[in-house]
Design brief:
Strand content of chain B: 5-15%
Distance between the termini of chain B: 26 Å
Number of strands of chain A: 5
Oligomer: heterodimer
Number of helices of chain B: 10
Structural class of chain B: alpha/beta
Largest sheet of chain A: 3 strands, antiparallel
Structural class of chain A: mainly alpha
Number of helices of chain A: 17
Distance between the termini of chain A: 60 Å
Order of helices and strands of chain B: EHEHHHEEHEHEHEEHEEHEH
Number of strands of chain B: 11
Largest interface: A-B, 37 and 32 residues
Shape of chain B: globular
Helix content of chain B: 25-40%
Amino acid sequence: MAEPAPSRNIKSMPSNWRLLEPDPGSRKHAIKIKMTSPESASQRKSILTSAARALSEATGLLRAPQRAIPLFSRLASDQLRTTVSHRHLYSYASTTVPTENALRSLIEWILQAQKADGGIAAYYSLLTGYSNSYPEVTGYIIPTLYDFARNPESATGTQTAGEINSSAEKAREAADRATHWLYSLQLPTGAFPGGLHGQAVKPSPSIFNTGQILQGLVRAHIETGSAESLKRAVAVGDWLAAIQLPDGSWSGEAAYQGTPHTYYSMVSWALAQLAAVTRNPQHSAAADKNIDWVLEQVKPSGWFDGINLRSHPTYLHFVAYVIQGTLESGILHQRTDAVQAAAKAAWVLLRKFETHKRLAGTYEPDFTSGQQFACLTGNAQMSCIWLRLFEITGDPRYLNAALKMNELLKQTLPSKSRRPRAIEGVIGGVAGSSPIWGAYQPMRFISWGNKFMADALMLEQRLTRQFEKKFEQELPARPEASECA
Amino acid sequence: MRLAVLCSSPYSETGCAVAARLVQLGHIPVGALTLPSWDRNTLLRKVGQWGVKNSFRYAVAKLAPGKPNTSSRIRNPYLESALRNREGIFRSVHELAAVAGFPVATCASQNSPHAIAQLRQWSPDLLIFTGGNILKDEILSVPRLGVLNSHLALLPEIRGMSSPEWSLLCNIPLGITIHFMDASIDTGRILIRRQFVPATDCESFPDLRNRMIAEGVELISQAVAGLAQGTLAPAPQPDCEKDHQYFVMHDQLKVLAARRLHQILPRPVAALNTHQSGGHNG
C-alpha cells in the first residue's frame, strides 16, 4: 500500500495509535515539546484529529461486539508469542506450515475482502471490520490474482482437480472485476485518486497510487488482451510522464506530502512494464529518468535516502518499496547500476535477518536502529526481493533467507486449525504488525500484506522447483563403489 | 607454549576432545574457560539445533550417574579415541582437568570482563576456540599468538554456518581449515587448509559433520605442534573483500545438499536427519 489523499491518510493511523501506547510519561513529554514549537497550532489540530480517529476505531468494537473474541484471541496469542518466543540461529530453518496451505488461505482472504463492485478493502480491522475499497491496492493485487490463476496447483493441498480449476476461475474472475471497477475511477487526466474509495468529496489524483494501479491495468491487458485496459494504462503513463519533474522525480500536489520520494521507484517499475508492452519511448524514458534520480540518493551504506515521510517513521514497507522498484526497473531495463544498488541494500537487510532472525519494523537512515516490532508486509516484500535476486544472480543465500522469512510469515498467519472461532477477515489475513499492536497498521489485517506474502510464496514455489530441477541435472552420475574405495 | 581452551559448555565433546588430545601430545592447557551448562540461551539454541529428543539424550549421556565407560556416552563416536581414559571416557572438561591438572573457569560470556580477566591471569600464548560466542577484539587480543579455530569448510570459499552443507550445495570440495580468528566471521589468517574426502560408509549429514569435527581436532593438534616448533606460519586469506559468509541452511536446501553427498558416496545416504550433531557449527 499506499498513499491515500493526505486528508484521508490511512497510513497516518500508526501515528494516531501511538497516542494509545502505554507510556504516558513520554507521551506527555512529546506533546509538551510539540505544543511549544512554532507549528504548535497545526500540530495540536493533528493530534486532536488523530485522537478522534483512534477513539472512533476503539468504539468500533461497541458497534460489533462479536469482534471481541478474535481481538482478544489475537492479543493473547501475540502476547504469548512475544513472551515465550526465542529466536536463535536455527529459527525458521524447518518448514512447519505447508506453503500451499498458506497460499490458499491468503488468496481466500483477498477474495473475501473483495466487494460486490470489484473493489478490494484496504484492511480488516479487529475493531471496525472491513474498510472501504482501496483503489491502489485493488490495482496491484490484480497481478497477484492472475499469477495464482495461472498456477492454482501451487495451492492444491488436498484439493481435487475440480476444486483447483474453481480456485483459478475465482481468482481470474476477481481480477477481472477489480479491473472493471478501476475503470470507473479513472480521472479525465488519466490519473487515479488517492485514498479510500468514497471518502473524499472531490477525488484528487495521487502519483504513487496511480503508478501502483498501472501495474494492474498492464497485467490485465496482458492476460485478457483487453484494448480498454491498454488504452487506460497508456493514459496513466502519459499523465505520469507529463507531470514528471526535469530531475526525474515526482513532486507537487499529487505527490504524498507534496515532496518527492524514492519509493516512487515502484511507479518507475509500472512505467517500465507499460513500456515493455507499448514500446513507447516516452514511458520508458520516464521510468529511466526516475531511476536515475533514485540512484543519486543512494548512500555508501546502501541506504536509499529520500523516502521523505514526515510524521511517520520509515517503515520497512517503504524501504522495501524503494529496493523492489529499483530492482524490478533495473531488471526490466537491464540496468546493472540499479540492480547492484538494490542488491546492496537487500544484502544489508539479509545479513540483519540472518543474524537476528528478524527485521525491525522501522529503520533509521543507514539501516541503523529501528523499532522492535515486525512490519510483516515489509518482511514479505524483502522475501520477494531476495527471491528475485536469487533468480538473477543464482546466489542460493538469497533463496535460503527467503525460505526462512516465508516460514516466519507463515507462522504468523491465522489458520482455521489454530483459530476455530475466528471470523472472516482474520483467517488467512496478514497483520500489519507483529505483535498486532505494533506501530504499523495496528489491529488490522491488511490486503497489501496478503498480496506481498502471496507473491513471495508463489515466487518461492516457482524458483525452488526450477532450482531443484537444475540441481538434479547438474549432479554427476553416482560413482560405483569400486571407484571410491 | 601456554595454551587455553574455550568451550561452549563443560560437557562440550569437541572442547573436551581438543583439550584431551593436546594433553595426550604433552601440551597441558593452562586453563579451560567454559560457558555455563544450564544457560537458558544455550539450552534453547541446542534444542533448536538438535531437537528436543536429541538434546535430552545428550543431557542424559553426560549427566547419568555411573562409570562413563561405554561409547554410548559419546554423541560423536569419532572422538572416542581422544576422550578415552583408563577408566572409560571423559564426559566433561572438569573430569579431564581433574586428571590432567589444569583449572576450569566458567563465564556467562566469553567476551565478559570476568572472562577477559581470567584469561589475562592465565596469560596464554594461544587460545583454542571450540565453540561459544562470537569473539570480540578485546578477547582476541589477549593471547600472544591469537585464537585458533577449526572451520568445517575450505576458507575463504565458505565462511559461516552450515558450512559442509553449503560446500555440497555450491559444489565446492568439502574441507577443514584451521585459522586464526579475527573480529569478522572466519576471515582470519590460515594455518592449515585441507580437503576432506568422506569415507565410503558415511551415513548422513550428522555423521559427516562428526567425522569432520574429529578430523578438525587432529588438525588443531597438528597446528599447535607446528606453531610450537615454528614449522607453520599463518597466511592471510585471499579475496577477503568478497562476502563469502553463509548462514544456517534451510532444510529444503539441505535435501538438495544431501543428494550431492549421496552422489559423491558409493552408497545411499540414510534418510536426512536435519538436526545438527555435535560440536560447533562452523
